[in-house]
Amino acid sequence: MIRAPTARRLGGEHPRIASQLEQAKPILPLASSAHRPDNRNMGDTKPEVEFEPVKVKRGPGWYVRVSYVGGQTKVSGFYSRAEAQMWIARESSSWLKKYEGGRLA
C-alpha cells in the first residue's frame, strides 16, 4: 500500500497541512498497459470483415462473400473453392484497401 506523504516528510511543520496530508487517500498505481479496455465502439477502430468462399447456386463456380458491419458484397469469378480460398489468403488484404476507398481496411 502506498501511503500519503506527511508534512514532516515534506519538510513542513504547519499543522493544517499536516492534517490535510494525513487525511489524503492513498495513491494507487496506474493499470498496466497489458490491460486493454473494450473500445470496439470507438470511432478510430475499423469494422471486422469476414471472407467466405460460397458455391454459386445456379451453374458452376464460386464467389467470395465479404461481410462487414453494415453490409456485404461479393467477389465473383472463381472456378473452385480452392481458388477462392487462395484469393482470400493472397489478395483479400490488398482488395480491402481499395474497396470503398479503404474504409474497411
Written overview of the protein:
It is a single chain. The chain is α+β, with helices and mostly antiparallel strands. It has a domain at 49-102. The chain has 2 helices and 3 strands, in the order αβββα. The protein has a 3-stranded antiparallel sheet with strand order 1-2-3, with helices on one face. The model is unreliable at 1-11 and 25-37 (pLDDT under 50).
Topology readout:
Elements: H1 15-23, E1 49-55, E2 62-68, E3 71-78, H2 81-98
Antiparallel strand pairs: 1-2, 2-3
Question: What are the key terms here?
Answer:
26% helix, disordered N terminus, three-stranded antiparallel sheet, 2 helices, elongated, alpha+beta
Summarize the structure.
With 105 residues, the chain is α+β, with helices and mostly antiparallel strands.
| Number of H- or I-type helical stretches | 2
Q: Measured on Cα atoms, how large is the radius of gyration?
A: 29 Å
Category from helices, strands and their pairing:
alpha+beta
The general outline is: elongated
Q: Tell me what portion of residues adopts beta-strand conformation.
A: 15-25%
List low-pLDDT spans. Answer: 1-11, 25-37
Straight-line distance between termini: 45 Å
Largest sheet: 3 strands, antiparallel
Helical content stands at 25-40%
Q: Return the string of H and E elements.
A: HEEEH
Number of separate strands: 3
Q: Strand order across the biggest sheet?
A: 1-2-3
Mean pLDDT: 73
